[in-house]
Design goal:
The complex is a heterodimer of chains A (about 220) and B (about 220). Chain A has about 220 residues and is mostly helical. Chain A has helices at about 5-40, 45-60, 65-75, 85-110, 115-120, 125-140, 145-155, 170-180, 185-215. Chain A is flat. The N and C termini of chain A lie far apart (about 60 Å). With about 220 residues, chain B is an all-alpha fold. Chain B has one domain: MetI-like (MetI-like fold, Orthogonal Bundle), CATH 1.10.3720.10. In chain B, about 80% of the residues lie in helices and about 0% in strands. Chain B has helices at about 10-45, 50-65, 70-80, 90-115, 120-125, 130-160, 175-185, 185-220. Chain B starts with 9 loop residues before the first helix and ends with a helix. Classes of the chains: A mainly alpha (about 220), B mainly alpha (about 220). Chains A and B meet through helix 3, helix 7, helix 8 and helix 9 of A and helix 2, helix 3, helix 6, helix 7 and helix 8 of B.
């Protein structure tokens, strides 16, 4: 049997945490891109486009992320795509993040007074320019706190990708635990690492929220 | 290629899916009730005169809200036995779900308590009600009415998150799905059906909570 010192445990967990961070970052960037697309559809003037986005958001918010990951992991190979846990994890978290982010930002867009749209059109700006120059900057400014709050949720959600076999923090901790039989210590450290990642962001979200209230 | 979807196994699986769904509903029912009762205490404690109590509850809330539910579950189920606390899977799942739920709802209930105008308390005290009665009869009902939608969302979120407790072999919906797909070799179809069941359950649960909230709150408050 291999001896694991405390330092070995911590070092391996920290190395695995890099994958958690990378996955969170990629999913957040991907979720932002897809989420913008969903946002445009959600605030579109065409009823059926709006409906589609509504159902898309409802689907991802109304089913467990674990099921979404399983469906991608087992479903994409049926379409003939070779899929690794990493691909399923990135795709699943990206799609899920896009739904949540689109819904958060929609709240922002709706909170922008109608007069701002009118002012935009009276200046002769067309729809996309109104969005880009007038509406979206205000909407994003208003929803900064919930967006950061969602990033925290996303980081925590990456833990689920361990179940479809992606080697991130939790999966590594399971392996270490199986070798050391020290679950209290191992999962305790894992919790601390997640806390160290999430707590500063939670704090930042709180500060943004207070700042927004002052205005 | 040419994979053909096959749902032929579904007929035999209905009773398993139903028992899994029942377990999921049982878990969320118990942890929602326990979580809300505890969070009323937690929110009240967070506004207490004792600084140590306020700090203890604040730390608990931050610790739970900044770590994944899966890790909390593993810590409770695998970690606590080394302290001599050994729980069976269902008890561990309920404990983990309740602790997780309480951290979020403590914040929600707290926001509700703060939203009740101070004059309500003062008026009740001036009428000679004892402080405890003021809290239970005057402040809490008004707070609950304000936060009811947020509580509803939190309960639905927790139900969806409970899929994770399949990992410690609690026989709920996801665990039954894992068993089914291992037996039928129809992983995609199995998870597809189970996803639909979850979707129906989350829509149904939300409707039920909203309907009962309308009934119970309008009767209870005004």
């Amino acid at each position: 049997m291999i001896e694991f010192t405390l330092w070995d445990i911590i070092r391996n967990l920290l190395l695995a945490a890099r994958w958690t961070i990378l996955l969170s970052a990629v999913a957040f960037v991907g979720g932002t891109a897809v989420g913008l697309l969903i946002l445009f559809m959600r605030i579109s003037k065409r009823r059926w486009v709006q409906r589609f986005a509504e159902y898309y958001i409802g689907l991802f918010q109304g089913t467990p992320l674990l099921m979404q990951l399983f469906l991608l992991f087992f479903g994409l190979p049926l379409l003939g795509l070779r899929i690794e846990p990493w691909t399923a994890a990135v795709l699943g978290l990206t799609l899920c993040a896009s739904a949540f982010l689109a819904e958060i930002w929609r709240g922002g867009v709706q909170a922008v007074p109608v007069g701002q749209w009118d002012a935009g059109s009276s200046l002769g700006l067309h729809y996309l320019k109104q969005l880009r120059l007038i509406i979206l900057p205000q909407a994003f400014a208003m929803t900064r706190a919930p967006t950061v709050g969602f990033l925290v949720q996303l980081i925590k959600s990456t833990a689920l990708t361990s179940i479809i076999g992606f080697e991130e923090l939790v999966r590594t901790s399971n392996a270490i635990n199986n070798a050391t039989f020290e679950p209290f210590k191992v999962y305790g450290f894992v919790a601390l690492i997640y806390f160290a990642l999430c707590f500063p962001l939670t704090r930042y979200a709180k500060i943004l929220e207070l700042r927004a209230l002052k205005h | 290629m040419g994979y053909v979807l096959d749902f032929g196994w579904l007929g035999d699986a209905v009773s398993l899916i139903a028992s899994g769904a029942a377990m999921t509903l049982f878990l969320i029912a118990v942890s929602a009730v326990a979580g809300i009762v505890l969070s009323v205490l937690g929110a009240a404690g967070r506004r207490s005169r004792h600084a140590w109590l306020r700090h203890a509850i604040a730390s608990y809330v931050e610790l739970i809200r900044n770590t994944p539910f899966l890790v909390q579950l593993f810590f409770i189920f695998f970690g606590l036995p080394s302290l001599g606390i050994r729980l069976d899977p269902v008890a561990a799942a309920i404990l983990a779900m309740t602790l997780n739920m309480t951290a979020y709802t403590t914040e929600i209930v707290g926001a509700g308590l703060d939203a009740v105008p101070k004059g309500q308390r003062e008026a009740a005290l001036a009428l000679g009600l004892r402080p405890r009665l003021v809290f239970i009869k005057i402040v809490l009902p008004q707070a609950l009415k304000v936060i009811y939608p947020a509580l509803t969302s939190q309960i639905v979120i927790m139900m969806l998150e409970s899929a994770v407790v399949s990992q410690i072999a609690v026989r709920e919906l996801t665990y039954e799905a894992d068993l089914l797909q291992a037996r039928t070799f129809r992983a995609f179809e199995t998870y597809f059906i189970i996803t639909l069941v979850y979707l129906a359950m989350s829509i149904g649960l939300r409707r039920l909570l909203v309907a009962s909230g309308n009934r119970f709150l309008s009767g209870g408050v005004s």
